[in-house]
Every structure is written in structure tokens, then in C-alpha cells.
Amino acid sequence: MTDITNSPTLLALAKAHGGLNEAAQAVQAAVQSAPGTGNTGASPAAEHQPIRPAVLRAAQLARDAEERARDRQHVKGKLTARERLDLLLDTGTFEEIGRFSGGDIAAGNAGAAVITGFGEVYGRTVAVYVQDFSVRGGTLGVAEGRKICRLMDQALAMQVPVVALIDSGGARIQEGVAALTQYGRIFRKTCDASGFIPQISLILGPCAGGAVYCPALTDLIIMTRENSNMFVTGPDVIKAATGESISMNDLGGGTVHSTTSGVAHYLGADEADAIDYARTVLAYLPSNSTAQPPTYAYMATRADREVAARLREIVPENDRQPYDVLDVIRCIVDYGEFVQVHELFACSAVVGFACIDGRPVGIVANQPNVLAGGLDVDASEKIARFVRLCDAFNLPVVTLVDTPGYKPGAEQEHAGIIRRGAKVIYAYASAQVPLITVILRKAFGGAYIVMGSKAIGADLNYAWPSSQIAVLGATGAVNIIHRKDLQKARDAGQDVERVRARYAAEYERTTVNANLSMETGQIDAMIDPEQTRGALVEGLKLLAGKRRMRATPRHHGNQPL
């Protein structure tokens, strides 16, 4: 890091005098004894490049501020802002912007409650701002807002991702509406950057009130099990307004937002885990929407064929028997490495990042282990948001389908399954990145259409031999189609279940299998399970040249929200 605190001359002075404080005193004394000479006489190291007392004072303040930060943060089990930067960025790559901006060196104030600058993650430039809770509780005032906005302007000009590490008491009350105005400016710039450069927020402390909407507007929110909190109104306000008593963790802790509200996309075990997840995600994303994601060297081996062969045994023949779709995903992606997003939320759907033959992709899959892989309101929003993220940043989407349809019931209808389920349709229908879909087992009703069907815009669609595609499953369809026949059998004293089973078997033979979809062109090929990875590799190569097209001159669509 380029900074006066690392100046060789300054370090030599500190060493010669036994510390920065002593060096500052010596320099000040030399200046007072020989004013106007420009020679401090403090050290041979400073003879050719004298150090002004104000510069030494600034360095001293910076060192003291970090010591105070360690004392205040470590007792809470939290890292300092600069320690967090060290974990996030490649070693020695951080270049700070405006270190003393917002400070008053003469009055002993080292700077604002936010650190801004640029660094590298796996060799690629990112912009980063880190709120420093050890300075005025990390609150945001005019100086902090200006630093963040300037950084975002530079990030947009340089077309690089922005990573925010949040640990703040919110708007600085003493600055009133001037502080609130800065949040408005940050909101605006975050919206300007949305879909153009990746934006990731790590909540490593409190984030309350209007401040929560800064991370809410970004692409991914990462929280930790301890210390992370997000809420619009805190426990004290809630108790005063409603009489309800609730702790900060139960109201807006990392676990709540990762499992219940869906606000957080990842729950880190600690700060190091959370920061490592941010680094990992950035490795799959391009620097901006005009660039392609990075590619990685991958050499196919005999082990790939052995892993692919396992796919024959993962999905049970009985279509009512659950299995873990993660086992399927690990068999088709490079090295079995899959980075889940929203892992603990809406678990009937699985989304995340992986590489196939060295190319980053987004994976969307139904999870038969949870609700049989059915789509509910939360799973629909989870999938839609992820597909939109992939489409914004040029990641192909691979969809693995095994779903009986949308989850039925009054609860879901009243929760808005029509409005919220439509988000999946909008996401897939408007996506212009390569879309490849594989039907593993069941694809029924509207869920078949929305989960990356050919009709909604997918480029390549494959099906396993055991796949079933229909408006309804066999049992449900027979109960409707043969309702009168079943009633007649019951009136005649026949075994109704045997009659129903006969009709169901006939329906599966003629309607539910994938042949009809192949004949109408909705499925491009029937593939054996062990062919899946190979089909995806070749499909991604084929679609590598796919480019965006503007279908209409509209400003933007009015998607369901």
C-alpha cells in the first residue's frame, strides 16, 4: 500500500528515536530551534528529504487510530476495518483514497469513519469501502458520504466491482438531514451501478434504519452468525410502538435473514469465512457487464468419466422417492465444486456458481429432498433473482429440472404465488445469456414452462430417459380425466384403485414420457445420465458466441415486483 505511514524516511526516523511519538517530538523541537532552515536535524535518514512535523503527526495519528480500533473491536470478537481489508484483498494491493479526508490532523482527528480505495482479488481490481466502527460508531456523515460516492464514481468509470464492508451505527444524528442526504446519494449511485458492475455487501456489524437499503440494492448480501444485524426499526422502537420484546439477533441477525427473510445470500461462520465467500464469488463474475467471466484451465481425466457414471445411480426410478440434487450437480461441474447462493433459504430450489470445462456458469435446480422440489413463493423469488444476476453478468444458466409444479394451497395463493411466481417467468424470458436445461425426472404443469423450457427461451433442452413431462402427474390427471369412469367402477363394486392404476399406466405410456416433447421440438435430445456433462460442455461451446439483441426500443419492462 502506498502511504506516508510506510515511508522509508519516516520508518527510519521512528527507529532512530524509538517510536513515532518520540520522532515527532524531536522534529518539532528541531523546527522550533531553527525555524525556516528546512533542516530538522532529527536523523541522518531525513537530511536529504526532511519530514515536516505535520506529516509525522498524521502518521502518528494513523498508527494510534489503528491501535484504538484493535482495542475496541477485538473485545467484541470483531476485526478492525484494516484487518478486514487484509483478508479481502490480495496481499499488498490496497491503494487507499483520501486516508485523512474528513479528519483534522491538528486537532488529533485521523479521518472519517470509512476507509475507501482499490485493491485486487485474485489479480483483478475491485473498489472497496469499509466502515470503521471504532470512529464515531462507524456512523455516516457528510465526509463519509462524499468518500463513498467518490469511490463509486471511480468504480463506474473504471468498470470494476464494488465491495462494501458494513459496520455502522447509521446516519450521524449530529449532522441531521445532511447525513440523510448522503444516503440518498449512495442509493442513487448504487442503482446506477446495478447490473453494470458487481456489487457485494458484507454485514459485519450493525446496519439499521435507512442504512439497510444500501446493501439491499446490491447483488449479494453476506452476513455472519455473530455480530451481524440488519433491521429498519430496532428492538427498542418496536417495543415502544407495539409492546413486542425481541432481541437484536431474533429481529435481524444473520441466521434470521439467511433462513427466514431471505435478505442474506450467505451466512458466514465468522468474518474470515464471510470475506472468503465474497472473494470466491468474485472469481466467477466478470468485472462488468460488458466483459466475459474469467475462464480457467481444466484438463479432462479418467476420473471425469467415473464421476459421470455415478449419475445413473443417483436419481431413483420411483418418481416419489427423494434424492439430493447436489449429488447430481457435483457430478457435472469441474472438480465437484459448487458455490451455493441462498443455501439456507427456500431450500426446495438450489442456485449457485460452478465451472464446466473451465467456464463459470450459474446452476439452477429443483431440490427433491425438500417439498419434492416444488416451487413456492420463496423458491420462485430465489430462482428469479439468481437468473437475473447471471444474465446481467454474462454467466450461462444451466437448469436441472425435477419438480411436480407450484406448491398448492390457500397459504401460497394468499402469499402471492401468482405475482411472485411470475418473476421466474420474467427472469428466464428476458435472459439473453446461453440457457441450457436438463429434465432429470419430473416436469409438470406451469413449473415445466417456467423452469427454462424451450418455449420460454432456452437454447438447448435435454431430457433423461426416465423423465416425465406433462400438464399433471399421472394420478392427478387420471382423477380428472377419468372421474366418471372411476365413479362407474365404484358403483359397479370394482376395485377402484386397480382401475385407477390401469388408467395411470396408460397415461404415463402415452402422455407423460418425453417422446411427445421430442416430437414437437421442445426437447432437443434424449441423453443418458452419464452423457450430461459432455452435453453441457459441447452446448456451452456451441453457445459461446451468443450475443444480446434489443427486441424493442423500450426503456425497460415492467416486471412483477
UniProtKB/TrEMBL annotation:
The CoA carboxyltransferase N-terminal domain covers 48-297
The protein's name is Methylmalonyl-CoA carboxyltransferase
- BP terms from Gene Ontology: fatty acid biosynthetic process
Identify the keywords attached in UniProt to this record, alphabetized.
Transferase
Q: Which Gene3D superfamilies match?
A: 2-enoyl-CoA Hydratase, Chain A, domain 1
Please name the Pfam families in this protein's record. Answer: Carboxyl_trans
State the InterPro entries in the record.
Answer: AccD/PCCB, AcCoA_carboxyl_beta, Acetyl_CoA_COase_Trfase_b_su, ClpP/crotonase-like_dom_sf, COA_CT_C, COA_CT_N
| Segments forming a coiled coil | none
Give the GO molecular function terms.
acetyl-CoA carboxylase activity; propionyl-CoA carboxylase activity; transferase activity
Q: Which SUPFAM superfamilies match?
A: ClpP/crotonase
**Native organism:** Bifidobacterium pseudolongum PV8-2
Q: Keyword Magnesium: yes or no?
A: no
Out of the domains of life, which is the source?
Bacteria
Transferase recorded as keyword: yes
Gene Ontology CC terms, in alphabetical order: acetyl-CoA carboxylase complex
Question: Ranges for the CoA carboxyltransferase C-terminal domain?
Answer: 302-561
